[in-house]
Amino acid sequence: MAKNYQFIQQNKQYTPQTQPLPGREEEMIQGRSGGFAFDAGIWSMLRRCLLVGTAQSTYYAGKQELTDDFIKVLTEAIALDAERVGQEILYASDGRAINNSAPILALVLLSMGQSPEAKKTFIKIFPQVVRTASHFYEWLNYTKSLRGFGKIVKEAGRNWLSNPDVKHLAYQLLKYQQRLGFAHRDALRLFHVKPPSEEHNQLFQWVIKGWDELPQEIPHETLAQIWWYEWLKRNPQETHKAIAQGKLTHEMAAPVGKMDQEAWRLLFNQMPIGALLRNLASLSEIGVLRTEEVQNLNRVKSVLNNPEHLRKGRIHPIDVLKALKTYKSGGKLGKSTKTWTVVPRIVDILEKAVELAFDTQEATNKVFLHAVDISGSMSGYVADSVGLTCCEIATTMALVTAKAEENYMIRGFSTEFRNLKITKQDSFSSAMGKTSNQNFGGTDASVAYDWMIKNKFNADVVCFWTDSESWAGRKHPSVALKEYREKINPNVKAVYVSLAPYQLTLVDPQDPLSWDLGGFDPGIPRLIQMLANDDI
DSSP E strands: which ranges in 159-289? Predict the structure, then answer.
């Protein structure tokens, strides 16, 4: 906040809205930027935090401050309606959140709720949120930090480690053997897990003691991957055979085998979608993915350009966008020293995958105006490691929605309303390039309506992609919208997509034709189209 006030002092021509609207004081709150907006309410705030997460600082707030806000809102929501909180956690965790960390943190807070409903809901949704051993370790870490291992926690841990699908459990325990200071033997001892079957017993014995001697034969079909892993430890020169016959993943084979090009090729042939997306650079560096390797590129396309595969793999569009930005750089982003030759067809496949990872429907034949926030506050990073800015993600989501329609315009607002020269013919990479170097000035969402009035632009739907910290204008966006309706289109619909975990909204709660949507939900483009068609 201090950083922004310093900016204001350096730009005297911008006058922030430092007072709420007359007569609406109880409905409005002051944002970190100093401007006033409407209170989004506890449930909208909860969904934003779950979908966006709070592990990355924003322009106006550090990650600790955001996490403290999240915990406060979550605690209040659990006290109000624990079952509804559980539904929100499930909604976010099912591939809609930017990652699963915020839903897992919320799960821990839910277990700390005082009501029987909170405890019951926690146990009920636990296996649907904690799906992998990696999730399990993260949950253990949050639990240790926030509460400790009481009765309800031990019940959840025992249930997860007693999964009747022993083959799946063995896969998880082998793939993720330790994380965040925990190993599976620690969890088995902590939760006093009694093996519910002989197959479980054999699996737990391996977890605790390992195999001093390799059994002559695979003890049980459920332990096949573990047997091949142990065999590879003793025969690292036979990595190719172990991968092919044992169906080992990279996480299983790499620590104990010899990883040459052929090993990577074998892994590639059976690589699940998430691992494929993460390893495109490595596969290119080692030569498995090259322009002339047509068959391999065909497989990449068949996996990443299949909407069903993307959905089943819970691949978030932002994950694809990160992969696109990383891969296209050839190794010039982030801290990695790895470099690779960029294969143009893979870039094309990733561009298409970004679009497919969002939900859209047939064109509505409505006129859309997309107003992308390009102010200085949108230059803050959202996605970790690669450095996607809030503005880049806003641009991508606006373009996805525009690509699904015929009649649209995309412009950018700060303290003026600029033509970004983005059309549906743009790639996502080129569109991000057109906005990423334009983050400047204060935030005034009302300039979009002023421009539309001046140019008599008759829109059916106006979509704002913003962090909702509108402070620089001399009138609130809701007032500007009212003027637009009086002068141009009385039935225009306004949609504000908030891309930061703040409790602000630019939507007037008394306006039946305005909606607030939060987070990086892949379903937002389709939802906007449904609102345009009065399908909701």
Answer: 178-179, 182-183
